[in-house]
């Protein structure tokens, strides 16, 4: 019998996806419903924002872009 | 990481209505006409026009002659929209008979009536025969509507913290009616937050709402209101028992068709309040609160539709301000020059430029200067415009009649987190650019904003979009390959398929109503 599951489709680069999968595994797999393919994940709707915040946190640790220019006002 | 969060649209609301509701809606010529005008893409309009006076149903295969093979996608999309709005009927596929399509009876009859005139349906309003106060002219109504609508926008934007302090302050009086405030709360355009001065704070949906053009804003609010009314009636019925059910249903149909009727009225004319049904008369106070109609205090037997109401179903933008008219004209000039592809940029910006138009009307004309070093100056003292700018600008200095600040990575990111897109920011800045900038750009054939700034804003957004998300449904556990192929094929045809994997026999669609119906009819056929 065909089933329709409610959720959110997440599309991202494979590198980001692997971070997301890792975050998921640190949290008892509460975020991801299905691992679809290398660019797509299917995630619980009410936890998308939490997942985004976690990703943001993780990226902050490793990535620090420069502001294009600094001058005084 | 923006979720492209659209606020509530008319098409979403209509799609959820059952077929019987549509049949009743289409009894009104004004409704049929308004849906035709507002809701259909050009190709769908062509189909309707062709079918309108066709004596017999048209073979579906005939469409292949009309539409070039490469346009199949658009054709299917148009047919799907026409079906979901219950404008056409298509016979189910069978072996012995080819598929045929025709207009649904009520829609066809009403549409013909709307075009030819005649009938006693009073569907396009009953003009008042009483003498009209000469002070109430179009300018007066425009002013009135703008004031009402800006009050609502003010209320939403006023909850935005500007540089740490809450509220843009200054010149803010009264605000909208309590009923409107409740509606904004229910629609989650604002939410209760005890830490702000007004006690409410803006939400992500609220920001998207602010940057929409006035017309879309009005619809968003009206639909929230219709739904709230539906819910209130539903609650009342439960207390009363099942008897009131049908009456309540026809009420909400009447409410919706009244809105479509308002859209067909003539601006600056008085209409007769007594000719309205009771349901519609009960709607008047709320419509006055929104600024869609005006009722003179001394004589409540007349009502005047304002521009907000009469442009409901047209694509013309409501309450068009000087600034957008100016940049549109500049864009046209530039397109006539037609010398390089930058023109596209400007044209796009201007056509999108109606966004947040009414929120800028405090100044009347463009006031923003953006320099190549990301500094921004705005010659305005409108708290509304300053508050909107503060959503994505780091404002540093405020003078009488002017503010200055910078576009920074953080300020743009903040805006994007609120749900504003880079394109919305760019189009807002372009359409509110100071006329000096517009003139200089037109003279050299460049886009209004410095290209470096536009590109950087887009890059900042990309940096945030590590992942894009869309809500919807994953279809899985199919019984057979054949079932999977046919359903996913259908999903692709009607344009809701976002992802699929033949290997896993799963696919993802952003809507499921039509797919569910498709499955049902398939099951019946088996």
UniProtKB/TrEMBL annotation, chain A:
Cell compartment(s), UniProt: Nucleus
SMART domains named in the record: Tbf5
Organism annotation: Parathielavia hyrcaniae
Top-rank taxon: Eukaryota
Main location as per UniProt: nucleus
PANTHER family: GENERAL TRANSCRIPTION FACTOR IIH SUBUNIT 5 (PTHR28580:SF1)
Keyword Glycoprotein annotated: no
Function: Component of the general transcription and DNA repair factor IIH (TFIIH) core complex, which is involved in general and transcription-coupled nucleotide excision repair (NER) of damaged DNA and, when complexed to TFIIK, in RNA transcription by RNA polymerase II. In NER, TFIIH acts by opening DNA around the lesion to allow the excision of the damaged oligonucleotide and its replacement by a new DNA fragment. In transcription, TFIIH has an essential role in transcription initiation.
One GO process term, biological-process aspect: nucleotide-excision repair, preincision complex assembly
Subunit and interaction comment: Component of the 7-subunit TFIIH core complex.
Protein name (Swiss-Prot/TrEMBL): General transcription and DNA repair factor IIH subunit TFB5
Entry's Gene Ontology cellular component terms: transcription factor TFIIH core complex; transcription factor TFIIH holo complex
One of the Pfam families matching this protein, by short name: Tfb5
Keyword terms: DNA damage, DNA repair, Nucleus, Transcription, Transcription regulation
Family label: Belongs to the TFB5 family.
From TrEMBL, chain B:
InterPro entries per the UniProt record, alphabetical: Tfb2_C, TFIIH_p52/Tfb2
Coiled-coil regions listed in the entry: none
Places the protein is found: Nucleus
Pfam family, one: Tfb2_C
Keywords recorded for this protein, A-Z: DNA damage, DNA repair, Nucleus, Transcription, Transcription regulation
Superkingdom per UniProt: Eukaryota
Main subcellular localisation: nucleus
Domain Transcription factor Tfb2 C-terminal: residue ranges: 455-520
GO MF term set: ATPase activator activity; double-stranded DNA binding
Listed GO CC annotations: transcription factor TFIIH core complex; transcription factor TFIIH holo complex
GO biological process: nucleotide-excision repair
PANTHER family: GENERAL TRANSCRIPTION FACTOR IIH SUBUNIT 4, TFIIH, POLYPEPTIDE 4
Function, in words: Component of the general transcription and DNA repair factor IIH (TFIIH) core complex, which is involved in general and transcription-coupled nucleotide excision repair (NER) of damaged DNA and, when complexed to TFIIK, in RNA transcription by RNA polymerase II. In NER, TFIIH acts by opening DNA around the lesion to allow the excision of the damaged oligonucleotide and its replacement by a new DNA fragment. In transcription, TFIIH has an essential role in transcription initiation.
Family: Belongs to the TFB2 family.
Name under which the protein is recorded: RNA polymerase II transcription factor B subunit 2
Organism: Parathielavia hyrcaniae
């Amino acid at each position: 019998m065909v089933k329709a599951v409610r959720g959110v489709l997440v599309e991202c680069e494979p590198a980001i996806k692997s971070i997301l999968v890792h975050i998921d595994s640190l949290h008892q797999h509460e975020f991801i419903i299905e691992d679809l393919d290398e660019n797509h994940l299917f995630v619980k709707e009410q936890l998308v924002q939490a997942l985004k915040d976690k990703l943001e946190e993780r990226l902050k640790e490793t990535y620090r872009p420069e502001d294009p220019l600094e001058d005084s006002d | 990481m923006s979720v492209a969060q659209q606020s509530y649209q008319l098409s979403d609301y209509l799609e959820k209505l059952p077929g019987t509701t549509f049949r009743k809606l289409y009894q009104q010529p004004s409704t049929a006409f308004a849906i035709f005008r507002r809701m259909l893409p050009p190709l769908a309009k062509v189909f309707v026009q062709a079918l309108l006076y066709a004596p017999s149903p048209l073979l579906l295969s005939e469409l292949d002659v009309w539409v070039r093979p490469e346009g199949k996608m658009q054709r299917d999309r148009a047919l799907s929209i026409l079906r979901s709005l219950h404008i056409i009927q298509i016979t189910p596929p069978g072996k012995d008979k080819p598929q045929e399509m025709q207009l649904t009876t009520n829609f066809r009859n009403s549409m013909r009536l709307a075009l030819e005139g005649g009938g006693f349906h009073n569907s396009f309003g009953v003009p008042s025969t009483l003498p009209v106060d000469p002070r109430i002219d179009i300018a007066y109504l425009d002013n009135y509507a703008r004031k009402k609508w800006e009050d609502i926008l003010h209320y939403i934007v006023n909850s935005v913290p500007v540089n740490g302090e809450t509220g843009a302050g200054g010149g803010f009086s009264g605000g909208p009616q309590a009923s409107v405030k409740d509606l904004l709360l229910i629609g989650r355009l604002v939410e209760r937050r005890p830490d702000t001065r007004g006690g409410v704070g803006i939400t992500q949906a609220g920001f998207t709402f602010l940057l929409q053009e006035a017309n879309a804003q009005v619809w968003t609010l009206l639909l929230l209101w219709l739904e709230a009314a539906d819910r209130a009636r539903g609650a009342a019925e439960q207390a009363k028992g099942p008897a009131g059910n049908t009456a309540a249903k026809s009420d909400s149909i009447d409410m919706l068709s009244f809105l479509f009727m308002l859209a067909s009225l003539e601006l600056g004319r008085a209409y007769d309040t007594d000719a309205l049904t009771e349901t519609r008369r009960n709607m008047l106070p709320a419509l006055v609160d929104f600024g869609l109609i005006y009722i003179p205090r001394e004589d409540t037997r007349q009502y005047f539709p304002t521009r907000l109401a009469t442009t409901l179903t047209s694509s013309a933008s409501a309450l068009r301000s000087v600034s957008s008219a100016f940049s549109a004209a500049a864009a046209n000039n530039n397109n006539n020059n037609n010398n390089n592809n930058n023109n596209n940029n400007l044209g796009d910006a201007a056509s999108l430029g109606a966004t947040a138009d009414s929120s800028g009307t405090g100044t009347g004309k463009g006031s923003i200067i953006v320099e190549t070093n990301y500094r921004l100056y705005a010659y305005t003292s409108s708290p509304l415009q300053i508050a909107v700018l503060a959503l994505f600008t780091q404002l540093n200095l405020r003078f009488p009649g002017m503010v200055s600040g910078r576009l920074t990575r953080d300020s743009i990111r903040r805006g994007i987190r609120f749900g504003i897109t880079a394109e919305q920011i760019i189009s807002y800045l372009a359409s509110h650019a100071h006329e000096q900038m517009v003139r200089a750009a037109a003279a050299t054939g460049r886009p209004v904003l410095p290209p470096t700034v536009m590109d950087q804003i887009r890059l900042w957004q990309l940096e945030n979009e590590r992942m894009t998300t869309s809500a919807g449904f994953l279809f899985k556990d199919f019984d057979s390959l054949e079932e999977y192929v046919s359903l996913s094929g259908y999903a692709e045809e009607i344009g809701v398929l976002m992802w699929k994997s033949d290997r896993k026999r799963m696919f993802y669609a952003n809507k499921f109503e039509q797919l569910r119906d498709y499955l049902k009819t398939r099951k019946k056929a088996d």
